[in-house]
UniProtKB/TrEMBL annotation:
<keyword id="KW-0963">Cytoplasm</keyword>
<dbReference type="Pfam" id="PF05103">
    <property type="entry name" value="DivIVA"/>
</dbReference>
<dbReference type="InterPro" id="IPR007793">
    <property type="entry name" value="DivIVA_fam"/>
</dbReference>
<keyword id="KW-0132">Cell division</keyword>
<dbReference type="GO" id="GO:0051301">
    <property type="term" value="P:cell division"/>
</dbReference>
<keyword id="KW-0131">Cell cycle</keyword>
<feature type="coiled-coil region">
    <location>
        <begin position="38"/>
        <end position="126"/>
    </location>
</feature>
<dbReference type="InterPro" id="IPR019933">
    <property type="entry name" value="DivIVA_domain"/>
</dbReference>
<keyword id="KW-0175">Coiled coil</keyword>
<dbReference type="GO" id="GO:0005737">
    <property type="term" value="C:cytoplasm"/>
</dbReference>
<protein>
    <recommendedName>
        <fullName>Cell wall synthesis protein Wag31</fullName>
    </recommendedName>
</protein>
<feature type="region of interest" description="Disordered">
    <location>
        <begin position="182"/>
        <end position="205"/>
    </location>
</feature>
Amino acid sequence: MTELSPRTTRHMSPRAIRNATFSHRMRGLDEQEVRAFLETLATQIEEADAERAKLRAEVERLRAERDARTESTGEINAHAVALFSQAQQVADRLVAEAVQHARDLMANARRQQREILQRAHEAAQKAAQRSDAAAEKVEAGGYQRPIPEIEYVRTFARVAQVQLKSVLDALAEEVEKLGDLPRMPAPQQQQPSPPPQQQLAQISDVSWSVSVGASATTATTTSPFDPR
């Protein structure tokens, strides 16, 4: 049997195997069989090398795909954070606009309330003055007919009450709209803001005693009668 030299123990390419030479000795192996065996061995090594190259390419492809997915996941997360931030900003803006609108309605309601009370007070004073002047001319037996000024004041008070209730109904509907605004989950590092109803409650220090309806009309105070 032919003894291999030290150089043959290293990894050899298929081409080196095919071109290998051996010394001839008496009663040695058949050279044709050795060549055929080396050819088969070289072919198998070529196939193994091709398979390893294919596997390496597949590994590289999978690594590249993994890296791409990792980068894509990072981009998706960044996009989601940006969308959440935009949604939070929109929600905050809507709440701020609604609260400001409620403040405007509250101020308008207070102003109209003062105007209504002032007009009613002035009308009552005028009616009292006229009734005092008329009472001096009435006989001691009492009034013979109702005083028109007092009836006017009563009618004006009823109309003022209806108009004031309309203002309060419109304000109550705006407060209900605040409760329907979308609520976005706040980030953990931020403190949750108070609900719009609580913000509105901090604005108003007036207690209303009429029931809240569902009307959305804007009330303007006008006198149904002219006392002059």
